[in-house]
Amino acid sequence: MIQETEIIKDTTHLGDEGEMVINMGPQHPATHGVLHLVVTLNGETIKKIEPHLGYIHRSIEKMCESLTYRQFIYVTSRMDYLSSHINNLGCALLIEKGMQIEVPERAKYVRVILSELTRIASHELWLGAMAMDLGAFTPFFYAFREREMITDIMEDTCGARLTMNYIVPGGLMYDIHPDFQKKVKAFIAQFKSKVTEYEDLVTNNIIFQSRTKGVGILSAEDAISYGCTGPVARASGVSCDIRKLFPYEVYDKVEFDEVIETAGDSFARYIVRVKEMNQSIRIIEQLIDNIPEGEFVGKTKNVLKLPKGEFYTRVETARGEFGVYIVSEGGTTPHRIKFRSPGFSNLSALNHMAAGSKIGDLMATMGTLDLVIPDIDR
Amino acid sequence: MFSLEGLTAMIQNWLAANFNPTMVLVLQCVIVILLAITLFAVLGLVLVLMERKVAAHIQIRLGPNRVGPGGMFQTVADTLKLIMKEGLTPDKADKLLFNLAPFVVMMVGMLLLAPIAFAKNFQIWDLNIGVLYISSISSLSVIGILMAGWASNNKYSLLGAMRSGAQIVSYELSAGFAVLSIIVFTGSLQITDIINSQENGWWLFKGHIPAIISFVIFIIAVTAETNRAPFDLAEAESELTAGFHTEYSGMRFALFFLAEYINIFIVCAIGATLFLGGWMPLHIGHWGGFNHLMDYIPSSVWFMGKTFFLIFLIMWFRWTFPRLRVDQLLDLEWKYLLPISLFNLLLATVIAIYGWHF
Fold first, then answer.
1. What's the ipTM?
2. Tell me: the pLDDT tens digits for B145-175?
3. B301: confidence class by pLDDT, cuts 50, 70, 90
4. Structural domain contains residue A228
């Protein structure tokens, strides 16, 4: 029997007298990706923000149920496309843990170097995009100059610039490019010489500081209760760096600081990410000269089968804690995968942070949350 | 060297010899109108390209370099494109105001061309209240912007227009006081008198402290008046799409676009006239040889050089600083710039009375 379906009217509450409801997005120069924000305004002050998600939902988790354990890893590159290596690493770690696969030291070192390079590339893009949201158009080009060097390295070694399919369970897909070490060192030298440029142009700029200081404050308790991780939580004083708390690969062998600020405003989040870039450079410097010789991939069967059970692992992406949870029935494809996306929890705190401030502040707050919508929508 | 006053005298004499006085006046008006329109077109061409090239080089890229040698005809291509675009009028927009707004803004630009002295004896209208005329006519542009915002029947445009209106009206005060500090030194509102008083040195140097403070305040205030970054929240692309001219397309948008650049030219021309000596060459004290050498450079080159230097400065600001939030912008004006400029006016008056300037 065919039932008539009733088209449900748009349930957005129209607001009280004097309030204006505007839609920011899904196509908007400042929401990075297809994010639909329904903003209730009273003049210039924001009363409520309601994010409407799902514009780029691609049923990734369902799709992975029909992909083998070797195939599903690279779908995560398409989720948070700015941390593709790190996402892939998370999935590979999970399979290695579940199947007890040995990873050679060489592969571990290179995977960590690639993860840190990806983190720097992601933060560079964030820096440029955030400055552009606030009206400073030039840092975008300067940040992309450094990012180009990283994507060049990735293109040589991994074959692609953005969605790099290179990490396999057990190690790497093929050995690194012969110029890898040379280019990474050249990049480190260039980056260090340009850090002062960013400082002068953005960090020490009084207009930038007055637009971000005291804006979008998130307290430590709220950060924990909303489930925020990554730079968003670290800027509020919550220590949550997975690389320090639950070290994986060779993170326990390298020296680096976990960057924590306590102010919880947009400027603190900005400073945390800039300092994280410097810490990543520190990690790469310690590792780049000491890549051990040897195999680049451990011995694995061709067809991988995770034993029956539930497995979870987590890695620290540029945005926060990325978790992979697999329920396996012992077959060649996962029975159910769940990805814990960092952006989703960070976005849920947006209403709390931005309600009561002005539209210009919304830009500053959203910029420092560093949202990548495909990561949230999956 | 070639001087434009010879040209104007020649035209004047020829006209007077061949036509009766009323006809002479009418013909002079026609010639001036044609020249003004040509100047607008050429300036638009040059300034838009200059902006794009300056922006590009600051952003480590090249800018337009394909259309014509060095990208010279890029603006021509852009204008052709804008002319051929469909000029949409929103459905419930107020038709009269919607169509009138770009013309009001353009008209302000044209009227302001009158008192500017482009070279020695090359001025359209040397009225005795030159500076007052400039201040009052430039206030009319607010009307055009508010008309555009209201008539668009669009929430974003209205927001943008209101912000812009508040901004322009506030910063006019500081700009006015900055200009007044120089008038206190010159004692006359007439442009020719102001320029002639700078024969032995530009007011920026002669007026030392108050002139430098006025200059800085003037540059900040005119950047805000012409809606340029860091005060461009009226057109803040990442926040409100395009502010008060969101709904304009085609030729009407081209007029707004052109009017913005003409405004920049005019305020920089005024700044150059008041602070940097207009068409007066750089004379340093009693260095006869140097001064004589400087006199060889035609006065129009001096004027354009100074104006374009200030234009470059204003363009430089746009690509360096982030945008100010609207309340920070108004704070800056009312809590900082206005008190400072009032105090500066007082300082300038005291210095002028006691003759402590050079």
1. 0.81
2. 888 888 877 777 787 788 788 888 999 989 9
3. confident
4. yes
Confidence of residue B236 (pLDDT cuts 50, 70, 90): low
Closest CA to B338 of B123, B132, B170: B170
Interface residue ranges in chain A relative to chain B, Cβ cutoff 8 Å = 20, 22, 29-30, 44, 131-138, 140-142, 145, 201-202, 205, 207-208, 210-211, 358-361, 363
Question: For residue A238, what are the domain limits?
Answer: 60-377
Residue B226: domain span: 88-354
Stated pTM of the model: 0.86
**pLDDT tens digits for range A256-305:** 888 898 888 899 999 999 999 999 999 999 998 888 888 888 888 888 88
| A207-245 pLDDT per residue, tens | 889 888 888 888 999 999 999 999 999 999 999 899 999
Side by side, the strands of the sheet bearing A321-328 are: A309-316, A321-328, A336-340
Q: At what angle do helices B338-354 and B208-225 cross, to 10 degrees?
A: 150
CB pairs under 8 A between A and B: 72
**CATH code where residue A243 lies:** 1.10.645.10
Residue B39 lies in a domain: no
Nearest-Å Rg of the Cα atoms of chain A is 21
The answer to the question of residue A39 being in a domain is no
The answer for residues whose C-beta is within 8 angstroms of residue B303's C-beta and 6 or more apart is: B117, B118, B119, B269, B272, B278, B279
Cross-chain CB nearest to A135 (options B55, B155, B323): B323
CA dist A97 and A104 (Å) reads 14
Residue B197 has what pLDDT?
Answer: 86
Phi, psi (deg, nearest 5) at residue A311: -135, 145
Q: In the 3-class helix/strand/coil scheme, how is chain B assigned residue by residue? A: CCCHHHHHHHHHHHHHHHCCHHHHHHHHHHHHHHHHHHHHHHHHHHHHHHHHHHHHHHCCCCCCCCCCHHHCCHHHHHHHHHHHCCCCCCCCCCHHHHHHHHHHHHHHHHHHCCCCEEECCEECCCCCCHHHHHHHHHCCHHHHHHHHHHHCCCHHHHHHHHHHHHHHHHHHHHHHHHHHHHHHHHCCCCHHHHHHCCCCCCHHHHCHHHHHHHHHHHHHHHHHHCCCCCCCHHHCHHHHCCHHHCCCCHHHHHHHHHHHHHHHHHHHHHHHHHHCCCCCCCCCCCCHHHHHHHHHCCHHHHHHHHHHHHHHHHHHHHCCCCCCCHHHHHHHHHHHHHHHHHHHHHHHHHHHHHCCCC
Q: What domain count does chain B have?
A: 1
Does residue A2 lie in a domain region? Answer: no
Place of tokens 């009273």: A42
Domain-embedded: residue B56: no
Total domains in the fold of chain A = 1
Task: Flag whether pLDDT at B3 surpasses 80.
Answer: no
Q: How confident is the model at residue A13 (pLDDT cuts 50, 70, 90)?
A: very low
Taking an 8 Å cut-off on Cβ atoms, the answer to whether A361 and B233 are in contact is no
Contacts of A142 in chain B (CB under 8 A): 60
Residue A271 lies in a domain: yes
Residue B19 lies in a domain: no
Mutate to test the interface with A, among B54, B58, B323, B328 (most CBs of A within 10 A): B323
User: In this structure, is residue B31 part of a structural domain?
Assistant: no
Please answer yes or no on whether B238 and A133 come within 8 Å at the CB atom: yes
